[in-house]
Amino acid sequence: MRNQLFLFAIGLLLCSVCFPERVRAGEKTLTIREMTVTTRIVGRAPVDSVRIISAASGKTLYCYTRISAPDDEEREISHVWYRNGEKVAEYTLPVRGKRWRTHSRKAMEKGMRGVWRVEALDVEGNLLKSVEFTTK
Q: How many distinct structural domains can be found in the chain?
């Protein structure tokens, strides 16, 4: 029995190395090439990358995400915004090509101090990537 389990495990390992596209779930094949929080998007690109920002500014921030997909099949991702570990917003965003750019935005009310995190999730809820910034 032990030998059979060992051979089964070796077989799975070899399959995942030789045929990775068959082992992965469809949505896990999405790859986040770039993800940043920015104060503006110009020409479909972020103008800066926010790490620390004043909570008194009251600016709108954008989470810009550049994605690669294996094909042109339409998919969705979600941006989930957290402040101090508590979910404050969630946006469903389309992915409509092999190379796709998208963003969500969050109006930052004055005085919203804290540690922020934005997570990009596939439709199954798998974490693709996350970014953090702080408002002081």
A: 1
Q: How many CA atoms lie within 13 A of 24 on its CB side?
A: 13
Q: If DSSP codes are grouped into helix, strand and coil, which group holds residue 36?
A: strand
Nearest residue to 30 (alpha-carbon basis) of 124, 130, 128, 131: 128
9 in any annotated domain: no
pTM of this prediction? Answer: 0.78
- State the Cα–Cα distance between residues 38 and 97, nearest whole angstrom: 23
Instruction: Give the whole-angstrom CA distance, residue 123 versus residue 103.
Output: 16
* Residue 103 Ramachandran class (φ > 0 left, ψ -120 to 50 alpha, else beta): beta
Digit-by-digit pLDDT tens for the chain (136 residues) are 555 544 455 554 445 444 443 334 344 589 999 999 999 999 999 999 999 999 888 899 999 999 999 999 999 999 999 999 999 999 999 999 999 999 999 999 888 999 999 999 999 999 999 999 999 9
Tokens encoding 114 = 């804290």
Q: Does a structural domain hold residue 47?
A: yes
